């Protein structure tokens, strides 16, 4: 089995990715444990007791201990920073790029319109993670069950508004490259503005999406693989 075939098989079988709120809870719990261990290590190295830390921070020694053990779920960023400062640490909070945000109503509606063009034998799964370890990106959707094509599945990226076409295309191309997928469907909301953007940029898009949207939709309606990448208005 080739690497690409293995990725496709994994993509088809992989369950939906972790919910955003569950991911946030998991990350926060991990960070509290890590910070608590670092605070305790610094406190012991400084020769301070929990009573010393609690007295300096205006809290009980038991509360300081619960912060170290990451069992004080109501701990605030200010409390962490104060305890850290007492033991010689700067506890900072930073934000990092994460997975794509929750899809808005317009994007959900776009995928729902695409479903209307799919043969009953096909399945459309939403928010499917790219099957690469540590990669937080996901396809907006994956159509599975296709016949007469190089693969039984094809990934989907959807755009409700084409506002920076070059940047949007670059993101899609990087995702395809990293997932080792040569074919994909770019599903775009069929507004007049989007149609004008695509018409004006067609010389750039022609080679990227050699299969016409009409031909791709016709194939999907009978359960067939489109035969290549396509840009589809729905």
Write up this protein.
- With 234 residues, the protein is α/β, with parallel strands linked by helices.
- The chain folds into 2 domains: 3-12 and 99-233, no CATH class; 20-86, lambda repressor-like DNA-binding domains (434 Repressor (Amino-terminal Domain), Orthogonal Bundle), CATH 1.10.260.
- Helices cover 48% and strands 12% of the residues.
- It is built from 10 helices and 5 strands.
- It has helices spanning 3-13, 20-46, 50-57, 61-68, 77-86, 105-115, 165-179, 192-200, 202-205, 213-221; strands at 123-129, 138-144, 153-159, 185-188, 230-233.
- A 5-stranded mixed beta sheet has the order 1-2-3-4-5.
- Helix 7 links the parallel strand 3 and strand 4 (185-188).
- Helix 2 runs parallel beside helix 5, helix 3 (50-57) crosses helix 4 (61-68) and helix 3 (50-57) packs across helix 5 (77-86).
- The radius of gyration is 25 Å and the shape is elongated.
Q: Percentage of helical residues? A: 40-55%
Q: Give the low-pLDDT segments.
A: none
Q: Please report the total strand number as a whole number.
A: 5
Q: Based on helices, strands and strand pairing, what is the structural class?
A: alpha/beta
Radius of gyration: 25 Å
Adjacency order of strands in the biggest sheet = 1-2-3-4-5
Mean pLDDT: 88
Shape: elongated
- Number of helical runs? 10
Count of individual domains: 2
N-to-C order of helices and strands: HHHHHHEEEHEHHHE
| Main sheet makeup | 5 strands, mixed
Please state roughly what percent of the residues sit in beta strands, choosing from under 5%, 5-15%, 15-25%, 25-35%, 35-45% or over 45%: 5-15%
Distance between the termini: 35 Å
């Amino acid at each position: 089995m080739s690497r690409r075939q293995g990725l496709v098989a994994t993509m088809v079988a992989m369950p939906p990715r972790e919910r955003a709120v569950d991911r946030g809870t998991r990350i926060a719990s991990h960070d509290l444990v890590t910070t608590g261990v670092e605070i305790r290590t610094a406190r012991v190295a400084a020769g301070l007791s929990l009573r010393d830390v609690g007295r300096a921070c205006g809290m009980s020694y038991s509360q300081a201990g619960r912060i170290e053990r990451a069992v004080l779920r109501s701990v605030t960023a200010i409390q962490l920073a104060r305890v850290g400062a007492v033991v010689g640490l700067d506890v900072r909070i930073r934000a990092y790029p994460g997975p794509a945000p929750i899809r808005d109503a317009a994007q959900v509606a776009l995928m729902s319109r695409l479903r209307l063009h799919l043969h009953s034998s096909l399945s459309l799964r939403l928010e499917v993670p790219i099957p690469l370890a540590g990669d937080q990106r996901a396809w907006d959707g994956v159509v599975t069950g296709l016949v007469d094509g190089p693969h039984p599945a094809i990934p989907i990226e959807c755009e409700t508004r084409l506002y920076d076409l070059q940047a949007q295309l670059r993101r899609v191309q990087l995702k395809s490259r990293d997932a080792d997928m040569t074919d994909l469907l770019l599903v775009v909301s069929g507004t007049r503005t989007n149609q004008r953007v695509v018409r004006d940029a067609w010389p750039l898009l022609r080679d990227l999406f050699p299969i016409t949207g009409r031909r791709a939709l016709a194939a999907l309606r009978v359960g067939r693989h489109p035969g290549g990448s396509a840009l589809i208005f729905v």
